Amino acid sequence: MPTVSVSRDRFFAALGRTYTQEEFEVLCFAFGIELDDVTTEKAIIRKEKHLDDDGEVDGDDEIIYKIEVAANRYDLLCLEGLARALRVFIGTEATPMYKISSIPCDSVLQMYVKPQEESFRADKLMEFYRSDMKLKKFLHIIENSPVYPVIYDSNRTVLSLPSIINSAHSAITLKTRNVFIECTATDLTKAKIVLNSMVTMFSEYCKNKFEVVPVEVVSHDGTKTIYPDLSCYKMEVSLSEIVGPIGISLDEIQVISLLNKMQLQAESCPSKGEPRISVSVPPTRSDILHARDLVEDVAIAYGYNNVPKSKPKCMTIGGRQPLNRFSDKLRAEVARAGYMEIFEVGDVVTLDGSRDVGASNNRRLAALYCNSQSGFEEIMGLVDRIVKVVRAPHVKFGQNYYVPTNEPEFFPKRQCKIVMSDGKQIGYFGIVHAEVLRKFGIPDPCTFVEIDVEALL
Amino acid sequence: MADKSSAEMEACLLAHLNSGGEIPDSRSYASSLGVTHGELEDVIKSLSAFRIVESTDITKETWVLTEEAKGYVASGSPEAQLVAAIPPEGASKDLLKEKLGSIFDIGMKTAAKNKWIGFEKGNKDLVFRKVETIKDELQEQLKRLDSGEVLSDKVIDDLKRRKLIMKEKSIWYALKKGPQFVVKRKKLATDVTQEHLRSGDWKDLEFKDYNFGAQGQPIGIGYVQPLLEVREEIQNIFLQMGFTEMPTNNYVESSFWNFDALFQPQQHPARDSHDTFFLEAPAATKQLPEDYLEKVKEVHQCGGYGSKGYGYDWKRDEAEKNLLRTHTTAVSTRMLYKLAQEKPFAPKRYYSIDRVFRNEAVDRTHLAEFHQIEGLICDYGLTLGDLIGVLEDFFSSLGMSKLRFKPAYNPYTEPSMEIFSYHEGLKKWVEVGNSGMFRPEMLLPMGLPEGVNVIAWGLSLERPTMILYGIDNIRDLFGPKVDFNLIKSNPLCRLGL
Question: Which residue numbers delimit the Aminoacyl-transfer RNA synthetases class-II family profile domain (chain B) (predicted)?
């Protein structure tokens, strides 16, 4: 989850009141954000430089709130958006209407997209930025593209090499009055979301508050699009679609007022049957995809902890997976035999072409005896016990189920496999070879057994 | 010498005290019984401990013979041995030295001083006897001392100087009847034996006091993993609530079932290799349900079922990438898809507790693999209120009856709630799990009927176990550095009791 750092005092000023930390945390909890940390710029710098509390550092002493917000709420990633959302939530402000200035068609600013007009060598440039710690992580976005994006102004001065760096020519200062906001992305949906988030947050400071001057983007094929698109996304839902999944009964007026607290404009629709509500989702709320998202916002505004609890009515019967139940019985048997459990019964994964993913789990039982002597007979006794308790009409063992083997991981003549009466191997055991022990740094002799549990089920 | 058992000695001693009264000197009493004092001493100590007799210690320091002196008592003093070794015609020093060995020098010296021997003129090497008989005074003195006679201080000093005697402290006892005196004491039993039961002796048994301050015998015993003990109890809670266990024995999963089917977009940061273990082999899934895959692709790209969708170019390659499942919700998704294919629809309650994998930095509270507990209910018309009700039932069985819910974000649930519980020990609200209602964009492409909702929740098994047992390092609990003492000393899991 992203964390947003804001100056506490500036934030409270924007909220129009101050809070004790406790009060603020209660508000955060209800809205679904979290006060993650309370710190200062100085403390942050100290932490970065690994200095103790007395270390002399630059930086401010003003209190900083680090606030964790939901990953899909891009409108909460700055002080302005966060403060506005909370002001609307507590009812001290109405949701703003964002709009673009109406400008005569012929005086709209234009931006032209022209591919491959000229040829430059940019590979050297890439090499140059690769050595920059901050910028190198953005190189991959355009590195393998046949063309690199570059933005010029009308005088052919470079403004930006998007994803990597902007020109000093276009840097804004406190004296800047007209700010040109440009967003570049590899995905148009995302680009629109970023642009809308940026312009709506900036628009709070515009001469005409919440009003943005549009730009016409002329594509290389001549198609023209006006950006930003600040229109609201219209949704029409029935009252029951909203209150049904929450399990509360409200009328449409109540629901509309709850939606309003979440920055969603809504009004009652004329309808003959069930009440219906028309909702306008502002350009800041790209997270709203479905009526279900409105349900959540109404539930938050209503208060999760005010929702009356109820019980699902469906009758179902509980039950366990036979393999897991069987594994538990074997685990208990091995513990009864005096072994300490450190997950001796668990799954191993092997390649398996018969499965959709190409691999499958296999349940195994493993036991290790370690002492001043190898304990070969101890493990043999455990296997005898397991063989005795797993016998069933479909799980048959003959009189002698040990067949000598010759595997390198065990000492020769002190190892064998365990076979069922049909000859199927279900496990093996032996005194672990000294070379194996040495590589694991084990100084004492060990006997190890592994058994395929699924073969015994 | 010891031809009396301690029981016999005890019987004699008690009879003697009973008839005559006192024993002033336990040493002489021992010799009268024909036993050593040491043998009698054990009987005296046992009787005194039970205050059957009262003993007074008598201690005295006495001179006793050294080993060397004991030899002289048996074979004569060195000088006497020397004289006895000289034949009438005399003998060379070398011959005598050979005969007498280590005592030759001292024997020569004293015999010469006593004028018992002489030397041939002009040949100092030939030794003659000057006397017919000698009186071995040293041997006599040693014999007298050994039999308890008191010698003059001068003799004692002389013997001491020659390291033939040494001081020894001896203890013996004066005995009389004690306050608990009995002629025959009862033997206190320490245990019940087969013999007692068979013979009927148990009726007369009187038991010795047991030392309950001592520890019991260490016993050979097996132990179960604390984490799996907690798993079993949580499992029982699910079973009581009518939940069926899901088959979660598939650690390798495709991105499709782990992410795409859950409406988790392909650019989501959780799908980055920094968070998820992708596999090199088997790298990709070969088989996906084609009809369903088309619907998933559609809902991601352009929406449907009332949704806008994410509006991006969905790629099959990305969905086919294999990984170690990051949550057991991948299994829940498979189960719900399977349920959607069964007609008519029947409600289900499912649960699982199994291993999941995250490519995370390992520290005291995080491992790259852990166990996820998950529960879900699928039915028509389920509500957020139902979810809250079920969570209260579930968590109160775990001993957490005070719950609070915080709005949260999760790509596949809407609404989503983080679950907080008030921790009495820490005196604060702690996050104990996540929950929500699965999104329509996840359920409807599967083919589940409109109006069917799924409420679900999840938490880790390790966190409640660590809180329950006060374990502050997850590596003590799970993995190759597991603490054996922790497993051995862990109390029973009382969840749900």
Answer: 229-480
The CA distance from B47 to B41, in Å, is 10
Residues in chain B closer than 8 A to A337 (CB atoms) = 222
Amino acid at A288: I
Closest CA to B263 of B321, B309, B211: B309
Structural domain spans, chain A: 3-90, 99-227, 233-305, 322-456
Please answer yes or no on whether A300 and B407 come within 8 Å at the CB atom.
yes
Query: In terms of pTM, does the model score above 0.90?
Result: no
The whole-number pLDDT of residue A93 equals 93
Question: In sequence order, what DSSP letters do the residues of A138-160 get, joined into one string?
Answer: GTHHHHT-SS---EE-TT--EEE
Q: Which of B250, B290, B402, B403 to mutate to test the interface with A (most CBs of A within 10 A)?
A: B250
Contacts of B355 (CB under 8 A, 6+ apart): A347, B251, B369, B370, B371, B372
> Which parts of chain A have pLDDT scores under 50?
none
User: Considering only CB atoms, which chain B residues are within 8 Å of A71?
Assistant: 269, 409
Q: Is the domain B78-135 a CATH 1.10.10.2330 member?
A: yes
Number of A to B CB contacts under 8 A, please give it: 217
Q: First CA to last CA across chain A, in angstroms?
A: 44
The per-residue pLDDT for range B244-290, each reduced to its tens digit, is 999 999 999 999 999 999 999 998 888 988 899 999 999 999 999 99
CA A29 distance to own-chain centroid: 20
Pair type for strands B428-438 and B452-460: antiparallel
Q: Is B301 on the interface with A (CB under 8 A)?
A: no
DSSP state of A170: G
Task: Say which amino acid occupies B380.
Answer: Y
**Interatomic CA distance for residues B229 and A271, integer angstroms:** 58
Domain ranges in chain B with CATH number 1.10.10.2330: 78-135
Helices B137-146 and B78-85, axial angle in degrees (round to 10): 140
Nearest CA in chain A to B219: A338
Distance CA A181, CA A195 (A): 8
Q: Is domain A233-305 annotated with CATH 3.40.630.30?
A: no
Fold that domain A3-90 belongs to in CATH = Phenylalanyl-tRNA Synthetase; Chain B, domain 1 (3.30.56)
Query: For B415, which of A299, A328, A357 is closest by C-beta distance?
Result: A299
A22 interfacial to chain B (CB closer than 8 Å): no
Task: Select from A180, A202, A183 the least CA-distant residue to A192.
Answer: A183
Amino acid at the residue B249? N
Query: Residue B469: its pLDDT value, please?
Result: 86
Domain A322-456 has CATH 3.30.930.10: yes
Task: Give the β-pairing of A165-166 and A265-269.
Answer: unpaired
pLDDT in tens, B325-376: 999 999 999 999 999 999 999 999 999 999 999 998 888 888 899 999 999 9
Q: Which of A81, A108, A69, A83 is nearest to A202 (CA)?
A: A81
Q: What is the CATH number of domain B227-489?
A: 3.30.930.10
Residues of chain B in contact with residue A363, where contact means CB-CB under 8 angstroms, are 249
Chain B, 172 to 231: residues with Cβ < 8 Å from chain A are 220-225, 228
Q: How confident is the model at residue B2 (pLDDT cuts 50, 70, 90)?
A: very low
- Tens of pLDDT along A92-126? 999 999 999 988 888 888 888 887 666 667 777 77
Residues in A touching B417 (Cβ below 8 Å): 304
Q: What part of B 15-54 touches A (C-beta under 8 Å)? A: none
For chain B, the residue count is 497
Beta bridge partner(s), residue A349? A361
Which residue type sits at B138? Answer: L
CATH superfamily of A99-227: Phenylalanyl-trna Synthetase, Chain B, domain 3 (3.50.40.10)
Token pair belonging to A120: 């430059």
CB-CB contact of A136 with A130 (8 Å): yes
Locate tokens 């016993």: which residue? Answer: B219
